[in-house]
What does this fold into?
Amino acid sequence: MKAIISGGGTGGHIFPAIAIANAIKGRYPDAEILFVGAEGRMEMEKVPAAGYKIEGLPIAGLQRSLTLKNLALPFKLLKSQRRVKKILRDFAPDVVVGVGGYASAPTLKMAAKMGFKTVLQEQNSYPGLTNKMLAKNASVICVAYDGLQQFFPADKIVITGNPVRDVIERMECSREEGAAFFGCDPSKSIVLSVGGSLGAGSINNMLMSHLQRFRENNVQLIWQTGKWMYEEAVQKVKKAGLDEWIKVHQFINQMEKAYVAADVVVSRAGAIAISELCIIGKPSVLIPSPNVAEDHQTKNAMALASKGAAIMVRDNECKTTGVQTVLDLLANPTARNQMSKNIRRFAHPHSAELIVDEIEKIL
It folds into this structure.
């Protein structure tokens, strides 16, 4: 088995890609797997850390604002296509899997043109432009939501759910171990805030405006800020004398320990974040990002909130109501227990294995 897996840009693309690779390796220990990502993006660091080789393409996304960067895009695309063609010819994969992100477009397009089998993995309830464009030539399209026939050929769609990290699916550590890892007291309530792998400015600003309320309510906070606001958050917590109550991290590598420690999770509503919350069954306050294609995070969040499986707070309202919503949920264990039961009904366990099943069928 030789497979190329392409895509990345954010953890929402990278973690499913690595989960698929691990599932292939679990079934075919001698499999050769090569990742193709975008130069300068997160995958160039995270994929080698997971033990896989990666090739980078000089590809970038189209900027929505008028900028000179867009003028370079056609040249980057041509250079990426030439490099992809060489990678495909040299590696000669049995299958090429696209998980979304800048690099997947030139990789999957060239793979289909050269006659390689291709698999798309679409994480969201509303597909991105790249996967819509690539769907026509894909052998199979693995999705996590119903109703995508309006975007993709119906006979190619298979519902597999979204792959999540092995350690989260297994969840072998206890709440006490998770709390201890972050220096928290397991006898007190713990909130986890994650704004996605790159951080979320509005969630960070919401928390910065109400830091004292965590100590006042005897609540601890594990806070993943992302790179851009990490130093500011550290300084504010230190200045307020809240180091004992608020644990600030730029990025949390062992997210399974953070999840298991938390009583309530505050999160964006990206597809992979939601898939992980469904697997672990955590009561959640979802604050969808408004800066995504077709507002798909709001659609993701509403799918859960309408079934009592999460609480949704709109991005433009979170600074005034978000922290109080979290504190109210912490104070209501009955509501939390019911929410845990409800959100688990949306879980798709063993998703990566189901995707490998589909790869086997087309081969």
Observations:
- The first helix runs from residue 11 to 27.
- The longest strand covers residues 32-38.
- The chain has a mean pLDDT of 92.
- The CA atoms of residues 60 and 102 lie 6 Å apart.
